[in-house]
Amino acid sequence: MRVELVKRPQRSALFSALSPFIALLLTLLAGAVMFLFLGKNPADALYYFFIEPLLETWSLHELAVKAAPLILIGVGLSICYLSNNWNIGAEGQFIIGAIAGSILPVAFPGFQSPIVLPLMLVMGIVGGAAYAGIPAWLKARFGTNEILTSLMLVYVAQLFLDWLVRGPWRNPEGFNFPETRNFHAYAILPEIWPASGRAHWGFVFAILAALVLWFVLSRTLKGFEVKLIGQSPRAGRFAGFSRSRMIIFAFLVSGALAGLAGISEVSGAIGQLRPAISPGYGFTAIIVAFLGRLNPLGIIAAGLVLALSYLGGEAAQISIGVSDKVARAFQGMLLFFVLACDTLIHYRIRVSRRLVAKPIEAPAGHA
Amino acid sequence: MSATRENRAGNLLDVRGLTKLFGSLKACDGIDLTIDRGEIHALLGENGAGKSTFVKMLFGALEPAAGTIRWKGEEVRIASPGDARKLGIGMVFQHFSLFDALTAAENIMLSLDDPAPAGAVAARARALSEAYGLPLDPNAHVGDLSVGERQRIEIIRCLLQNPELIILDEPTSVLTPQEADRLFDTLARLKAEGRSILYISHRLEEVKRICDRATVLRQGRVIAHCDPRGETASSLARMMVGDEVQAVVREKPSAAREALLEVRALSRKAGHPFAVSLSDIDLAVHAGEVLGIAGVAGNGQGEFFEAVSGEVLQEKADAVRIRGKDAGRQDISGRRLMGAAFVPEERLGHAAAPLMTLSQNLLLSRCRTDARAFLSRLGVIRQGAVAKAAKRIADAMDVRKAGEDPEAAALSGGNLQKFVIGRELDRAPMVMVVNQPTWGVDAGAAARIRQALIDLAKGGSAVLVISQDLDELFEICDAIAVMHHGRLSAPIPISEATYEKVGLLMGGARPEAAEPVLEAV
User: Fold this and answer.
1) What does DSSP assign to residue B489?
2) Nearest residue of B to residue A227 by CA position?
3) Residues B204 and B295 in one domain
4) Looking at the structure, do residues B154 and B275 belong to the same domain, yes or no?
C-alpha cells in the first residue's frame, strides 16, 4: 500500500477554508499527547491552557494586550508574504520601532506635552520602516536573500537594545538595573477602559490596520499588484509593475507596522525599555500571518488564538506546573500543521493498494 | 543469446510504428527508424514535429502508446531512463541539469547509478576527456564554466555509462561555431569506435556535414529517410516544412503607409547562458500591415519580444519607436499608453496569472490604459466595470469557460489564448505585437485568432507576429522576416516568399545564399 499526493486540477475552496481549523484540531490532539507524556491529565491541561484564560475580564484584557502586537505585525507581514518577500525580521523592526519611539521620553524627559505621544508613535513607525528598509534595499539592489539579512538584523537590534539599556540609556535613579527611566505621563499610551483592565490603544491600532490593509488588498490596484507580483513575477512585470519597488513597499509597510507595535508595547504595556521587551512577537506573528491565511481579517482571529497560547502558557505554568516553554511548543506545532494542511488545498491524498508494475528486465548479453 | 548472435551484423536499433498520443494529438504517429552500428543518424524536423517525444520514448522518459523497439534484434520495453542506460543508450539533453555550486566531477558522481568516490570519478572523467578530445577540468566549479564546457560534462557523464547509442538533442544550439567544430571531432571519434549517434537538429548544413543518414519528421510522421549528403539544404528544408506552397492572395496594402512600429539597430546582450543576444535588428511595421517573424525557437524571439514590449528597456530612446515617437526608454505601461498592445508566448505565468480570475487577468494588462474605466479614486478597482469588460471579451472571442469568472488556469490553452488576445484587441490597439499566437491551440481557436489579427490590420493597425508556424505566417502575413541567432533578415514580401526560401533562412543560410545557387554545395 502506498499513499500518494495527487495534484488537484483546481485549488480546493473547501480545504482553503477548512485548513486552519484542521490544523488547530491536530495541534490540540498533538498537545494532548504531549501533556500525556508530561504526566498531566490532557483534558485538565487543555482546559487550563485554552479555556480558563477566557473566563475573566482582566484576562480578556491581557489577551488584547498580547494580541495587539501580533495582529499589527501579522498584517504587515501578510503584505510581504503575499508579494513573495520573506521578511523574517519583524522582531528586530519591533525593537527598533520601540527604541526610536522611546527617544523622547528617555533622552528628553523634560519635554512634556500632549504632542509627545503622537510624535513617539510616528518615530516608532519611521524607525521600524527604516530598519526594514535595510534588507529591502539590499534585496532590490544586490539580490541578497532577505530571509538571512532580515533575520540577522534581529540579533543586531536585540544587542543594540541591550547595550542601550545597560549603557547610555540606563535609568540614573534605577539602582543600576538594566532599564531606562519610566516614561512620564504624557508618554504613556492610554488604556481603552481603564476601569476594567490593561488593554491599551495598541489593540485599536491593530484592528484599524487590519481593516485598512484588508480593504487595500481586496479592493485596490495596489493590493492587486501585491498579489500579482507574489504569484507570478513575470506576469507582474508584463503588467508594468516594478518588482524592486514592490520589495521596498512591502518591507516598509511591514516594518512600519512592526515599529508601531513596538512603540505601542513599550508605551502602553511596559512603560520603559528593558533588555527584553518582546516574548518573540515578531516571530510568533509569522505563525499568525499564515494561520490567518495572509488575509488581514483572518489575521485578527489568528492573532487572538496565538495570544491565547501565550496566556495559556502562563496559566498552565501556575495551575499545573508545566514549563511555559509549552506555549512555544504549541506555537511551533500550530505553524507546522497549518503549513502541512495547506498541502490539502492543492493536493488530495490517494491511498493505492496496487504495487507499481515492475519494468521488464532488459536483456542480458548486450556488452 | 542466439538472437543477439544472429543480429550481430544487423541493426543496433530497429523501431517500428512507434506512436504517442497526448489527448487527441498524435505527437508521434507510427514512426519507423533503424540505426546501424557506427552510424550518425540525423533526426530532422521543425519544432513540434515530434522529435523530442520520439527520443523521450527511446530514453524511457515517455511510454509509447503503440509500436515496438528492438535493440540488437530483441524486443525491449524501456520503462525508465535507468533501463535505457542499462541497455546502452545514453542521452545528452538540450538543457543541462547541473548544479552550479558543485564541481564537474561531483555533478557526474551524482548522476551515476552505482555510487563511486569523487576522486575515482574525477580520474575517469579526466581519462575520458583526454581520450575524446573534450578538454575539461573535473575539479572546476560548474558555475565558472562556459556553456560548451558544461555540455562536455553532460557528454562525459553520458560516456561514463559506456553507451552504444548516444542521443544528442540539439547539441549545437548553445555552442559557438568553434565549439561546434570541436564537438564534431568528438563525434567522429565515437563513430570510429563503432558507437552510434542519433543526432537531433534543424541545422541543415551541419547535418549534411556529419550525418550518414537522416530521418525527417513532420507533424509526428516520418516524411522521408534519406542520405543527407545526397540532398541539398533546400530539399531538406522542403521536407522539413512541407512543400505544399499555398497560393495566398492578399489585397495589396495601400501605397502611402505610415510606419507605426519601428525598430532601429536594436542590440541586446544575452543576460544568461541560455539567452540569445540580439544584434542590429531593423524593422518597420506599417499601418494595415501584418509582418511575420519566422524562426526556430530559441533564436532570440523571446529576447526580441521583451525588448519591443518594454519589459526590458533600451539604452537609446529611438531603438524602438511607436507611432512616430521614441519609446525605447518607456516601460511596458508607457508603450501601451502610446497605443501598443502585447501578447507574450507563455500564457500561464506571463500573459496571465494562473490563479487569478479572468477579470483580474484583464486588469493585468489594462490597469494603466483603462485606468479611467476600471479604477476610481485612490486606486479602488471598479469590480463591476472590469467584470463587464471581461464578459464582453469572452463573448467576442467565444471563450468557453466553466463558470462566470474562472481562474485562468482552469481554461484550456486555446480558450485562454483567445481571452489573452481578445483582451488586447478589445482596446483596438494601433500596434499589436504577438509572440506565438496559436502555439498549442486547437485548430478552431487558431483560425479565430488569425482572423482577428488580419481584421485588426485591415482596420489600419500594424501587426507584428512572431511565430514558429510557417503555415500560419504564410496565411496571415504581408511580409515575412526570419530571425536566426539574434539577427533578423530583411522582410520578404509574401508574393516572393516561398517555404524553401524561408526554411533556408531559418536553417541559418545567409540571405544572399538563399538563392538556388546553394544547391550546388
Assistant:
1) P
2) B356
3) no
4) no
Rounded Cα–Cα distance for residues B84 and A180 (Å): 73
Taking only the tens place, the pLDDT of each residue in B96-145 is: 778 878 888 888 888 777 777 878 888 888 888 888 878 888 888 887 77
Q: For residues A221 and B381, is the Cβ–Cβ distance under 8 A?
A: yes
Residue A328 and residue A29: Cα distance in Å, rounded?
Answer: 16
Q: Is the ipTM of this complex over 0.85?
A: no
Do both B188 and B277 map to the same domain?
no
How far, in Å, are B41, B87, B208 from residue B196 at the CA level? 8, 13, 17
Give B496→chain A minimum CA distance, Å. 36
Host domain of residue A308: 69-321
Q: Are A121 and A265 in contact (CB under 8 A)?
A: no
What pLDDT, in 10s, does the model give residues B442-500? 666 777 888 899 999 988 999 999 987 787 898 899 999 999 888 999 999 988 888 77
Query: From the CA of A214, how many Å to the nearest CA of chain B?
Result: 12
CA A89 to chain centre: 10
Interchain CB distance below 8 Å, A363 and B4: yes
Same domain, B218 and B347: no
Q: Copy the grid coordinates of residue B121.
A: 570519478
B270 shares a domain with B228 = no
**How close B108 gets to chain A, by Cα (Å)?**
22
CA B208 to chain centre: 22
Residue with cell 533578415: B489
Domain-embedded: residue A140: yes
| Residues in CB range of B262: below 8 A, 6 or more apart | B283, B284, B285, B320, B321
Question: Rounded to whole angstroms, what are the CA distances from B108 to A26, A79, B179?
Answer: 44, 42, 21
- Closest C-alpha among B96, B197, B194 to residue B184: B197
Q: Distance between CA atoms of A121 and A182, rounded to whole angstroms? A: 17
| CA separation for the pair A334, A331 (Å, rounded) | 5
Which residues from chain A sit within 8 angstroms of residue B331, using beta carbons? Answer: 240
| Rounded-to-integer distance, Cα B192 and Cα B188, Å | 6
CA–CA separation, A288 and A274 (whole Å)? 25
Q: Is residue B233 in some structural domain? A: yes
B190 shares a domain with B126? yes
- What does DSSP assign to residue A68? H
Could you tell me which residues are beta bridge partners of residue B479?
Answer: B291, B493
